[in-house]
Design goal:
Blueprint lengths: L4 H8 L2 H4 L8 E3 L10 E11 L9 E12 L2 H15 L2 E6 L2 E16 L7 E13 L2
Parallel strand pairs: 1-2
Antiparallel strand pairs: 2-3, 3-6, 4-5, 5-6
Length: 136
């Protein structure tokens, strides 16, 4: 089974996203490094569903990926999320390090304000995407 992590990092590390982060590349799988302050992005896989076949292992896995954007500035967190969506939504046949996403598409969005994460308060925006990753 292949994982979309390298694809996610590669796409999010684009200047249109990191430019809204002041040029920072604080992009992490699972959780941020200790002491990291916003702006940052954390991505996780919520679940994985294989495309069942009768002939053997699945040739395609479907990953639900959650990407959360953090910034102390409300406008910037929205611009980060918008830039990422423009790069990811309905993306076809994207290959990074021999991992191929047949299709990536946007599913959902939510936002919140966290006053307990950082003393200055942090705005968050969370996107859900579906990544269809080829296994062959």
């Amino acid at each position: 089974m292949r994982h979309p992590g390298e694809i996610i990092y590669s796409v999010l590390n684009h200047a249109s996203v990191t430019g809204q982060m002041g040029g920072e590349s604080n992009i992490f799988p699972g959780q941020a490094s200790p002491g990291t302050k916003p702006p940052m992005i954390i991505y996780t896989t919520n679940n994985t569903t294989p495309q069942n076949t009768k002939n053997g292992p699945s040739s395609l896995d479907i990953f639900e990926v959650q990407i959360t954007f953090f910034h102390t500035d409300y406008g910037r967190v929205n611009l980060m999320a918008q830039a990422a969506r423009l790069l990811l939504d309905y993306r076809k046949e994207l290959t990074v390090n021999n991992i191929t996403a047949q299709l990536i598409y946007f599913k959902d969005e939510s936002q919140s304000f966290e006053d307990d994460i950082m003393k200055d308060g942090t705005h968050t925006k969370t996107h859900l995407y579906e990544f269809r990753i080829k296994n062959n």
